[in-house]
Amino acid sequence: MCRYRARVLTVTSVNVNGLRAAAKKGFVEWLAETSADVLCLQEVRAEPEQLPAGVRQPDGWHVVHAPAAAKGRAGVSLYTRREPDRVQVGFGSAEFDGSGRYVEADLPGVTVASLYLPSGEVGTERQDEKIRFMDEFLPYLKGLRTRAAAEGCEVVVCGDWNIAHQPADLKNWRANQKNSGFLPEERAWLGRVFDDAAKDGDRDGDGNGGAGGGGYVDVVRALHPDVDGPYSWWSYRGRAFDNDSGWRIDYQVCTPGLAARAVKAFVERAATHGERWSDHAPVTVVYDR
Questions:
Q1: pLDDT tens digits, residue range 232-241?
Q2: 8 A C-beta contact, residue 207 and residue 244
Q3: What is the residue extent of each domain of the chain?
Q4: pLDDT at residue 206 greater than cutoff 80
Q5: Which of 11, 76, 181, 275 has the most CB atoms at less than 10 Å from its CB?
Q6: Which fold has domain 8-288?
Q7: 204 is catalytic
Q8: Which candidate in 160, 169, 195, 279 is catalytic?
């Protein structure tokens, strides 16, 4: 049995919108200043050898990069201060394990994962791909929680989930009800990720809990229950950032035991549009015993 042994664990997740570009616009300086113990990156869009050395393997970090087989697309990375006990790329999917969309690592008492869920586009193959990914990924999440519980461990899956769960999670929700990222079926799926398996029972008969539910907790929303946002993505078009017309699609999704230890969650929003190094902002959570 393993137990959550870190006194304080700070986890940050961010979609960098191309790590090489972000490195030129301020990511390197941000990385040098962050107090995070774990950093989860999405949409890296580069092979490791294409990255500057200080980004590919910075001093003081253990890094695993999981690029996509399709060059210049997707890609996820994990940076940890402590060397992981185990690293896994992909979640056992014949279709998606080479797509640069999932990587996980075991640290003492906790499995941390970086996820880049497909963005989708209504009426196209991209949306079909997104649905296929969701259909495969939820059973994996449920199994991951079950295995962790059996070992006395916790799980946090960080990343760009490309779904706004509730109207409070995007500014212009009324205008986006027929757009990918806020479709009823996508929102319902994310709701099943958060379903409490212990309450629902095993209604789908797979031994992992109820109604297709994962029993995870949206930590940022749990700590900020009555606010709009805090948003984590703003379009580069128009004045979306200046008007805070954003989406909250970047989540830290935890098993209940770890979520109960979350004491602070915040979005590291740039002070001005010109200081942004991605169209997303880092989402940071501090977990404390």
A1: 999 999 899 9
A2: no
A3: 8-288
A4: no
A5: 76
A6: Deoxyribonuclease I; Chain A (3.60.10)
A7: no
A8: 160
